[in-house]
Design goal:
9 helices, eight-stranded mixed beta sheet, alpha/beta, Rossmann fold, single chain, globular, about 280 residues, 8 strands
Length: about 280
Protein backbone atom coordinates (compact mmCIF):
# COMPACT_ATOMS: atom_id res chain seq x y z
CA UNK A 1 0.00 0.00 0.00
CA UNK A 2 3.02 2.30 -0.01
CA UNK A 3 6.29 3.10 1.71
CA UNK A 4 7.02 4.70 5.05
CA UNK A 5 7.19 8.49 4.78
CA UNK A 6 9.60 10.43 6.98
CA UNK A 7 10.37 14.10 7.32
CA UNK A 8 9.21 17.12 9.27
CA UNK A 9 5.83 18.85 9.36
CA UNK A 10 5.88 22.43 10.64
CA UNK A 11 9.25 21.58 12.20
CA UNK A 12 8.04 18.40 13.92
CA UNK A 13 9.86 15.18 12.90
CA UNK A 14 7.57 12.31 11.94
CA UNK A 15 7.47 8.72 10.74
CA UNK A 16 4.28 8.00 8.79
CA UNK A 17 3.12 4.47 8.06
CA UNK A 18 0.60 4.13 5.21
CA UNK A 19 -2.43 1.83 5.47
CA UNK A 20 -1.50 -1.82 4.92
CA UNK A 21 -5.12 -2.79 4.30
CA UNK A 22 -7.33 -1.43 1.52
CA UNK A 23 -8.92 1.98 2.15
CA UNK A 24 -11.55 3.57 -0.04
CA UNK A 25 -10.37 7.10 -0.80
CA UNK A 26 -8.49 9.27 1.73
CA UNK A 27 -7.66 7.34 4.90
CA UNK A 28 -8.29 8.12 8.57
CA UNK A 29 -5.37 9.24 10.72
CA UNK A 30 -3.94 8.02 14.02
CA UNK A 31 -1.26 10.27 15.57
CA UNK A 32 1.14 9.09 18.28
CA UNK A 33 3.52 10.70 20.77
CA UNK A 34 6.29 8.40 22.00
CA UNK A 35 7.79 7.69 25.41
CA UNK A 36 10.88 9.17 27.01
CA UNK A 37 11.84 5.62 28.00
CA UNK A 38 12.52 3.18 25.16
CA UNK A 39 11.23 3.53 22.49
CA UNK A 40 12.09 7.22 22.71
CA UNK A 41 11.95 8.41 19.09
CA UNK A 42 9.20 8.52 16.49
CA UNK A 43 10.91 5.87 14.34
CA UNK A 44 11.48 3.54 17.28
CA UNK A 45 7.90 3.99 18.51
CA UNK A 46 6.61 3.22 15.01
CA UNK A 47 8.50 -0.08 15.08
CA UNK A 48 7.20 -0.96 18.56
CA UNK A 49 3.56 -0.02 17.85
CA UNK A 50 3.01 -0.09 14.08
CA UNK A 51 -0.73 -0.84 14.44
CA UNK A 52 -0.58 -2.33 10.95
CA UNK A 53 -4.07 -3.80 11.20
CA UNK A 54 -5.70 -0.37 11.42
CA UNK A 55 -6.90 0.88 8.01
CA UNK A 56 -5.45 4.33 8.58
CA UNK A 57 -2.26 6.33 8.31
CA UNK A 58 -0.34 6.03 11.58
CA UNK A 59 1.81 9.12 11.97
CA UNK A 60 4.33 8.96 14.81
CA UNK A 61 5.48 12.42 15.85
CA UNK A 62 8.84 13.19 17.41
CA UNK A 63 8.74 14.79 20.84
CA UNK A 64 10.69 17.93 21.81
CA UNK A 65 14.41 17.40 22.59
CA UNK A 66 14.16 13.79 21.28
CA UNK A 67 15.17 11.93 18.12
CA UNK A 68 16.03 14.37 15.33
CA UNK A 69 15.79 17.20 17.88
CA UNK A 70 18.29 15.73 20.34
CA UNK A 71 21.27 17.89 21.17
CA UNK A 72 24.49 16.24 19.93
CA UNK A 73 22.56 13.01 19.32
CA UNK A 74 21.99 12.40 23.04
CA UNK A 75 19.12 12.69 25.52
CA UNK A 76 21.26 14.79 27.89
CA UNK A 77 19.10 17.89 27.33
CA UNK A 78 16.07 16.09 28.77
CA UNK A 79 18.04 15.08 31.85
CA UNK A 80 19.44 18.59 32.25
CA UNK A 81 15.96 20.14 32.13
CA UNK A 82 14.63 17.63 34.67
CA UNK A 83 17.50 18.35 37.05
CA UNK A 84 17.07 22.11 36.73
CA UNK A 85 13.34 22.04 37.57
CA UNK A 86 11.26 18.90 37.09
CA UNK A 87 8.02 20.81 36.53
CA UNK A 88 8.87 24.26 35.18
CA UNK A 89 11.91 23.36 33.05
CA UNK A 90 10.88 19.86 32.02
CA UNK A 91 7.34 18.46 32.32
CA UNK A 92 5.33 21.62 31.70
CA UNK A 93 7.33 23.15 28.79
CA UNK A 94 7.90 19.74 27.20
CA UNK A 95 4.21 18.90 27.05
CA UNK A 96 3.28 22.50 26.21
CA UNK A 97 5.57 22.53 23.18
CA UNK A 98 4.30 19.19 21.89
CA UNK A 99 0.69 20.31 22.24
CA UNK A 100 1.24 23.81 20.82
CA UNK A 101 3.14 22.66 17.74
CA UNK A 102 0.64 19.92 16.89
CA UNK A 103 -2.12 21.84 15.02
CA UNK A 104 0.33 23.29 12.48
CA UNK A 105 2.00 19.89 12.04
CA UNK A 106 -1.41 18.29 11.52
CA UNK A 107 -2.38 20.89 8.93
CA UNK A 108 0.82 20.25 6.96
CA UNK A 109 0.39 16.48 7.19
CA UNK A 110 -3.11 16.84 5.74
CA UNK A 111 -1.62 18.74 2.79
CA UNK A 112 1.07 16.12 2.14
CA UNK A 113 -0.68 12.81 2.80
CA UNK A 114 -3.96 11.38 1.43
CA UNK A 115 -5.86 11.83 4.71
CA UNK A 116 -9.56 12.30 5.25
CA UNK A 117 -10.81 15.44 6.95
CA UNK A 118 -12.50 13.68 9.86
CA UNK A 119 -11.61 13.46 13.55
CA UNK A 120 -8.37 11.66 14.33
CA UNK A 121 -7.22 8.93 16.68
CA UNK A 122 -4.48 9.73 19.18
CA UNK A 123 -1.99 7.52 21.03
CA UNK A 124 0.45 8.46 23.79
CA UNK A 125 3.09 6.48 25.63
CA UNK A 126 4.43 7.55 29.05
CA UNK A 127 5.01 11.34 28.85
CA UNK A 128 3.55 11.22 25.37
CA UNK A 129 0.38 10.13 27.14
CA UNK A 130 0.25 13.51 28.87
CA UNK A 131 0.38 15.16 25.44
CA UNK A 132 -2.50 13.02 24.15
CA UNK A 133 -4.50 13.72 27.32
CA UNK A 134 -4.05 17.47 26.94
CA UNK A 135 -5.25 17.21 23.35
CA UNK A 136 -8.35 15.43 24.67
CA UNK A 137 -8.90 17.77 27.61
CA UNK A 138 -8.50 20.97 25.60
CA UNK A 139 -10.17 19.73 22.39
CA UNK A 140 -7.76 21.64 20.16
CA UNK A 141 -8.53 19.18 17.35
CA UNK A 142 -11.47 16.76 17.03
CA UNK A 143 -10.54 13.30 18.35
CA UNK A 144 -12.68 10.24 17.65
CA UNK A 145 -10.76 7.71 19.77
CA UNK A 146 -7.67 7.56 21.98
CA UNK A 147 -5.31 4.95 23.41
CA UNK A 148 -2.59 5.34 26.03
CA UNK A 149 0.16 3.03 27.24
CA UNK A 150 1.76 3.48 30.68
CA UNK A 151 0.82 7.17 30.53
CA UNK A 152 1.99 10.02 32.73
CA UNK A 153 -1.41 11.00 34.10
CA UNK A 154 -0.39 13.13 37.11
CA UNK A 155 2.66 15.39 37.03
CA UNK A 156 3.07 15.00 40.79
CA UNK A 157 3.57 11.24 40.39
CA UNK A 158 6.29 11.86 37.81
CA UNK A 159 7.94 14.44 40.08
CA UNK A 160 8.07 11.89 42.90
CA UNK A 161 9.82 9.44 40.59
CA UNK A 162 12.28 12.10 39.47
CA UNK A 163 13.06 13.00 43.08
CA UNK A 164 14.41 9.47 43.49
CA UNK A 165 16.50 9.78 40.33
CA UNK A 166 17.81 13.28 41.04
CA UNK A 167 18.36 12.60 44.73
CA UNK A 168 16.66 15.62 46.26
CA UNK A 169 13.11 16.73 47.05
CA UNK A 170 11.39 18.99 44.55
CA UNK A 171 11.00 22.61 45.80
CA UNK A 172 7.32 23.24 45.07
CA UNK A 173 6.03 26.80 44.72
CA UNK A 174 2.80 28.42 43.54
CA UNK A 175 3.88 28.47 39.90
CA UNK A 176 4.91 24.81 39.80
CA UNK A 177 1.77 23.72 41.66
CA UNK A 178 -0.39 25.52 39.08
CA UNK A 179 1.57 23.92 36.22
CA UNK A 180 1.23 20.47 37.81
CA UNK A 181 -2.52 21.01 38.17
CA UNK A 182 -2.73 21.42 34.39
CA UNK A 183 -1.05 18.02 34.07
CA UNK A 184 -3.32 16.18 36.51
CA UNK A 185 -5.78 14.44 34.23
CA UNK A 186 -7.67 12.71 37.00
CA UNK A 187 -8.53 16.16 38.29
CA UNK A 188 -9.30 17.19 34.70
CA UNK A 189 -11.60 14.24 34.01
CA UNK A 190 -14.51 16.65 33.51
CA UNK A 191 -12.57 18.37 30.71
CA UNK A 192 -11.94 15.07 28.92
CA UNK A 193 -15.53 13.89 29.40
CA UNK A 194 -16.84 17.21 28.02
CA UNK A 195 -15.97 16.09 24.49
CA UNK A 196 -19.00 15.84 22.19
CA UNK A 197 -19.03 13.02 21.38
CA UNK A 198 -17.05 11.67 24.32
CA UNK A 199 -13.93 10.05 22.81
CA UNK A 200 -13.54 6.33 23.60
CA UNK A 201 -10.33 5.86 25.61
CA UNK A 202 -8.24 2.71 26.00
CA UNK A 203 -5.61 2.69 28.72
CA UNK A 204 -3.00 -0.10 28.53
CA UNK A 205 -1.03 -0.59 31.74
CA UNK A 206 1.93 -2.89 32.24
CA UNK A 207 1.50 -5.29 35.14
CA UNK A 208 5.02 -4.35 36.25
CA UNK A 209 4.79 -0.64 35.46
CA UNK A 210 5.72 1.87 38.16
CA UNK A 211 3.11 1.40 40.94
CA UNK A 212 2.23 5.10 41.13
CA UNK A 213 1.50 5.18 37.40
CA UNK A 214 -0.70 2.09 37.68
CA UNK A 215 -2.60 3.71 40.54
CA UNK A 216 -3.10 6.85 38.46
CA UNK A 217 -4.29 4.75 35.50
CA UNK A 218 -6.95 3.08 37.62
CA UNK A 219 -8.02 6.45 39.05
CA UNK A 220 -8.36 8.03 35.60
CA UNK A 221 -10.35 5.13 34.20
CA UNK A 222 -12.65 5.18 37.23
CA UNK A 223 -13.14 8.95 37.01
CA UNK A 224 -13.97 8.83 33.29
CA UNK A 225 -16.29 5.85 33.54
CA UNK A 226 -18.25 7.78 36.16
CA UNK A 227 -18.61 10.67 33.69
CA UNK A 228 -19.13 8.88 30.36
CA UNK A 229 -22.61 8.26 29.06
CA UNK A 230 -21.28 4.92 27.79
CA UNK A 231 -18.86 3.72 30.50
CA UNK A 232 -17.69 0.82 28.32
CA UNK A 233 -16.07 3.41 26.08
CA UNK A 234 -13.35 3.72 28.75
CA UNK A 235 -11.33 0.55 29.19
CA UNK A 236 -8.28 -0.51 31.20
CA UNK A 237 -6.20 -3.42 29.91
CA UNK A 238 -3.30 -4.86 31.91
CA UNK A 239 -0.46 -6.58 30.02
CA UNK A 240 1.09 -9.39 32.11
CA UNK A 241 4.85 -9.17 32.62
CA UNK A 242 5.17 -5.69 31.07
CA UNK A 243 7.13 -2.96 32.85
CA UNK A 244 7.34 0.66 31.73
CA UNK A 245 9.40 0.54 28.48
CA UNK A 246 8.16 -1.11 25.29
CA UNK A 247 11.58 -1.68 23.74
CA UNK A 248 15.14 -2.55 24.68
CA UNK A 249 17.62 0.22 25.42
CA UNK A 250 18.75 2.53 23.96
CA UNK A 251 15.42 2.75 22.14
CA UNK A 252 16.58 5.34 19.61
CA UNK A 253 16.19 3.36 16.37
CA UNK A 254 13.65 0.84 15.09
CA UNK A 255 14.09 -2.58 16.69
CA UNK A 256 12.28 -5.93 16.54
CA UNK A 257 8.93 -5.79 18.31
CA UNK A 258 9.10 -7.25 21.82
CA UNK A 259 6.33 -9.63 22.95
CA UNK A 260 4.96 -7.03 25.38
CA UNK A 261 4.84 -4.40 22.63
CA UNK A 262 3.08 -6.91 20.40
CA UNK A 263 0.41 -7.33 23.11
CA UNK A 264 -0.05 -3.54 23.33
CA UNK A 265 -0.13 -3.27 19.54
CA UNK A 266 -2.85 -5.94 19.36
CA UNK A 267 -5.00 -4.18 21.97
CA UNK A 268 -4.69 -0.86 20.13
CA UNK A 269 -5.51 -2.39 16.76
CA UNK A 270 -8.66 -3.93 18.20
CA UNK A 271 -9.60 -0.63 19.87
CA UNK A 272 -9.20 1.50 16.76
CA UNK A 273 -10.96 -1.05 14.57
CA UNK A 274 -13.93 -0.68 16.93
CA UNK A 275 -13.87 3.06 17.44
CA UNK A 276 -11.92 4.77 14.64
CA UNK A 277 -13.29 3.01 11.60
CA UNK A 278 -16.84 2.59 12.87
CA UNK A 279 -17.56 6.31 12.89
Amino acid sequence: MGDTVTGTAAGVPFTALPPTVPVDGPAPLVVTWHMIDAPRTDAAFAAALPMAGVPAWRVHLGMPWCGARMVDGRMDAVIEHARRDSVLAYLSPFVEQAVTEFPAALAELRERLPLDAGPIGVVGGSLGGAVALRILAERRVPVVAAALVNPAIRARSVVELLEGVIGRPYPWNDESRAAADQLDFVARADDIAAGDPQPPLLLVSGELDIPALRTDAEALVGALRDRYATPDHVELVTVPGMGHPLAEEPGLVPAPQLPVAKAVDKAMIEWFLRHLTSQ
